[in-house]
Amino acid sequence: MYIPKNRIKENLYTPGNEYVIKSTKENYIGYYHSLYTGKFFTGKTPNDSNIREIISEVVTGNDEETPNFSSTNRIALFLNDPDPIVPRDQWIQRDIVTYLTLNGKDTRDDDPREYPQTYYSSPTEDDYQLGSFTRYFIVKVNELIYTEIDLKTYKDIEKQSNKILWELFVPFKIQWTIDGVESNVFDINRDQVLIAGQQINRRGLPEFLRNDYLQFYRSKNINNQYTSGDDYTLPNGLNYQGLYHIMPNGIAMTGRFHGEADDILLTPISN
């Protein structure tokens, strides 16, 4: 299958402990390339020999929704605390005791603080006019568990507010594009996610976002259409069979969406 060069990122390299070969789960070290679909393969380019798919080493778990923790937790800050509201399997008291001791804080202080809540982004019409909006996230300090949060929570964690459990998380944000040429939007958001992962030095963010780099994008085209060969002809006069999309002006072109391939103009067959 032909894939345009602008839909491929070539000559990438991993030193290991980032990806495993999908078929064998063997740690992969070496050159690789990525496709617009969000998948990764061994080799500098798709033309290399013995191409194999590689996947993130992060175990993403099942497809259940992110658990929604209760908004306020009375932290079990010292061992044998008689009334911790947080279940013991969700909180490691020794870690908190160690942290507070090293920072000269009172380990008997169990004043309740907020636990960050999951926030489901929803861009406004003003955001669509601007073409992008900011999404806020946290990842646990000692686990690859991501959560999307709102701006207020992000600011509280960033400024280490005593109202929230900021010690457990690393906050970060991503500028998310929601308008423009579809293929460009996909590439921009994918790159922003990869950059964010590098900045916080963590893996697993693409999997957390399900590699959905067109989330919230409103396509102005009618995409992913299929014709059996009775609807359009190619410029050479031959009937076209396959996937196509329709532009806002009504013009049909080859490819699932604009920018995926060559976008060859199709001519409707008159009845």
Word description of this protein:
This protein is α+β, with helices and mostly antiparallel strands and 271 residues long. The chain folds into four domains: 52 residues, no CATH class; 43 residues, no CATH class; 84 residues, no CATH class; 47 residues, no CATH class. It is 17% helix and 25% strand. The strands form four sheets. It has a five-stranded antiparallel beta sheet, with no helix packed on it. A five-stranded antiparallel beta sheet has the order 11-13-14-15-12, with no helix packed on it. Strand 3 and strand 4 form a beta hairpin. The longest helix has 18 residues. It is flat. The two termini are 32 Å apart. 17% of the residues are buried.
State the total count of DSSP E strands: 15
Helix tally? 5
Strands side by side in the biggest sheet = 1-3-4-5-2
Instruction: From the alpha carbons, calculate the radius of gyration and give it in angstroms.
Output: 24 Å
The rough form would be described as flat
DSSP helix fraction: 10-25%
Q: How large a portion of the residues is in β-strands, by DSSP E?
A: 25-35%
Helix/strand class: alpha+beta
* Biggest pleated-sheet summary: 5 strands, antiparallel
Tally of discrete structural domains? 4
> How far apart, in Å, are the first and last alpha carbons?
32 Å
The arrangement of helices and strands along the chain is EEEEEEHEHEEHEHHEEEEE
Low-confidence stretches: 59-74
Report mean pLDDT, rounded to a whole number: 81
